[in-house]
Design a protein that fits this description.
34% strand; alpha+beta; 3-stranded mixed sheet; 65 residues; Histidine-containing Protein, Chain: A
Amino acid sequence: MEKKIGDALKRNAEVDARRICVSAAASTVHLYGSVHSWFEREEVERAAWAAPGVSEVVDHIAVVP
């Protein structure tokens, strides 16, 4: 699951995937890192929710303009 979400982030031109760390346990995904905007943060969350089997996303991402 972590690899699928990471790959999706790399394909998204709006997200700097190098600044995001994805951790998954069972059906819960934890997101860590920083982004430049609220839009970018929402894109990261969307990518996590789109992965098959995800029932919870815990967002620890900071917005640092």
